[in-house]
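Q: Structure for this?
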Amino acid sequence: MERIYLAHLCIAVLCIKLNRATDTLYAPAPDTMDISKDLVAASAAPLVLAILAEGDSYGYAIIKRVGELSDGRLRWTDGMLYPVLHRLERLGYVEASWATAETGRRRRYYRITKAGRAHLTTQREQWQAVDATLRGIWRELTPAQALG
Amino acid sequence: MAKHDDTLEAQIAQWRAYLRRRPAIRTADVEELEGHLRDQVTALVDAGLAADEAFLVAVKRMGSLDAVSREFAREHSERLWKQLVAAPESATDAERKASSVEVLVVFGLAAAAGLAVKLPELVGYAPLVDVDEELSPFYIRNMSFFVLPLLAAYFAWKRRLDRAGCVRLALAFSVAALVINVFPFTPDGHTTVLATLHLPIALWLAVGVAYAGGRWREGGGRMDFVRFSGELFIYFVLMALGGGVLTAFTIGAFAAIGADVEWFAQQWLLPCGAMGAIIVGAWLVEAKQSVVENMAPVLTRLFTPLFAAVLLTFLGTMIWTGSGINVEREVLIGFDLLLAVVLGLLLYAVSARDPHAPPDAFDALQLLLVASALVVDGVALAAIAGRISEFGFSPNRVAALGENLVLLVNLAWSAWLYARFLRGRGTFSALERWQTDYLPVYAVWAAFVVIVFPPLFGFM
């Protein structure tokens, strides 16, 4: 919970790096916490890349994994994941290939590339830097100060 | 349960159809999104939801199709510019395989056409150009036979024409080839020139029969052939422009290093390229008819008002100054061409119009164009009739007069049908049917000029 708020504050910095394609990923389900649209957009690419770093996956499974990782607090509009995946593919961070799934239908599997891993590493460093900065001020800020 | 599955499948099919209509979302993307939807539905059903509930939830989670397709468009902006890629991204491997076989067939036929045009020269039967650097008489007479039979063969193959149809086509081409080569034509004779000009028109109908496959007897099949002809013409002109640029660069580049390759451009690039371009153009029109906006109707819309304005001004000027038409040698042919252009404008306007739409201003403009063309032609005919009664019949005059009659009858009846339609007494379909029913008349007249004129006028 705290991390989410942390990141919320640093969104102005990250906005610059955002790709607009992820803007509308954000569509909160009524029962979930209202995570800002920009925040969802900013985290989409690193989150997808990190999930693919765990192993090859496909759209539906990625969405499911995001749900698990965030305890259901981070909800994406499912259809919006695919333009993000296609953008990552265009940038060369992931590769896609069609394969027949256990259901017998064709499914498009995504695999992270070397460039994708490198990008994930830099992203990770940046997020950690922002996170550490915010943690610092969080610690020094007394609740009374924070509330004004 | 089976019933539920059917309902679910129907719902998914409907959703898929909505998705397919978005230009930014390709077939492969639709498949990917559908897979997602199905996974989601399965998971929800496993969790205890009914199939229809699961479908609704899954669709909701997928997000609004407008928003999704907007994101796809942002990521793939090039898709909104409809792409002319060789093989479309088709869903199944079978389709992909079929389209690659077709590419092979098309380029094989194009190469065959390029070779065919050189063959008589290579075996020493007839030179491509004679001493005056003009096409030799043999080539002028036979130009249609280097490419049109191959084009017909392509469509016969593509439409899986039955044996009887293939035999009829082969027969038509053989008879035509026989007539044009066996008749004792005198070089540069009037009937020779006329036969040469009319042969492609007659043979084009044979291509049309092959194009329409089994649908030649239906108005729809013929109208598709009209559309095809217009688009092929536009593709051919575009390819000719590209070919011109290629030729200029070839000659220029080699001239820069002191090599003269003009002979190559003239003897190989131009004839082989032109023949091949017709086959390739036909294939492009076939493959891209759903991808590219049809151009012929667009040009029609642009030029109908302009032609109507010119004709009306011409009529007005003629009445104002009181001067009659100066009957020169070329005037009759000029008016034939005018009628042909007006008919083309009418035909392509008809081909692109929704027959069920009510009359609008453009229809009135179209009628105005046809009516003014009829009046102009009537004036010209009266002038020419005098000339014929004075100087008698010549093959050229009879041919031009016959053409004029053929076009005049069509336009006059079209004007009548159009007027009825505008007054709400007739349907637009009647006009469309009249146009498609009339198509064979042009070919019959052209065949008549090729086959009957030369003996009739003693091969003069």
